[in-house]
Amino acid sequence: MKKSTWVWSAAVVVAAGAVAAFILLNNSLGNNVEIESVIPEQSANNSSTGAAGINTANAAAAPVTGDQLNGSWSITDASKVYWSVTTSKETVNFVDPSVDGSWEVNLEDAAAMNGEGTIDMTTLDSGNGQRDEHVKSGDFLDVAQFPQAEFMATSFSALPAEWTEGTAVPVEMKGTLTVKGIEKEVTFQSQAVYSAGQLMLSGTTVVTFADFGMTNPHSIVLDTENDLEVRLELVLDRQ
Q1: What are 79-91's pLDDT values in tens digits?
Q2: What are the beta bridge partners of residue 64?
Q3: Alpha-carbon distance 189 to 209, whole Å?
Q4: What is the per-residue pLDDT across 109-131, written as a single tens digit (0 to 9) for each?
């Protein structure tokens, strides 16, 4: 084979490889999951508090007392957990609809409140099967060995003794998030709403890949931020 022919053949192989790599990368891009909050936007926007720490918005709405809120609550099937990673191209959301757990509410004593939840990581979904398979592999979440993530709430901020139905109340929730068997202390900045006999909680926190023994998946063609946002969107019923 002449040298020029060999050079052209090599160039074709390299070009074909580059095209294949681009197609593979392009197929793994794109956000297909939109985050859906369990708290209506109007309720969240009305979360103003008066001097006594009691919500003053929607003053005409029915007041909600400890008799309605105190006690045990269970996380329902309407709950979801979102995981978001931001790249140099976009933010990609993953949703997990398999959430279970419970809360113990006590408006008179925040120290007596607690909560716990488990997340089935095998159902994590970004709307892209190839990407999901890679994220669930041993390179990252290793769901075969660690199929569940867990959150254990250890403390809640003080809550007003009386709420207004349909109006958001700010809640700071601290606890331990466990992923791949590794524990990380986190704080969820949240809002809670009582409406039609249900409790809704929407809260976010930020962790990193390294927090759970993972390596940032950045590449020469795509940068990935170290921070990951975890978002709870929970709906609870009384037990």
Answers
A1: 999 999 998 889 9
A2: 163
A3: 20
A4: 999 999 999 999 999 999 999 99
Read off the pLDDT of residues 8-51 as tens digits, 9 standing for 90 and up: 333 333 333 333 333 334 445 799 999 999 998 767 776 644 33
DSSP state of 121: G
- Please report the pLDDT score of residue 221 as a whole number: 58
Q: What angle do CA 214, 19, 6 make, to 5 degrees?
A: 120
The values of phi and psi at residue 112, to 5°, are -90, -5
Distance CA 140, CA 144 (A): 11
Q: Is 212 left (phi over 0), alpha (psi -120 to 50) or beta?
A: alpha
**Which string of DSSP letters, residue by residue, matches 182-239?**
EEEEEEEEEEEEEETTEEEEEEEEEEETGGGT------SS--EEEEEEEEEEEEEEE-
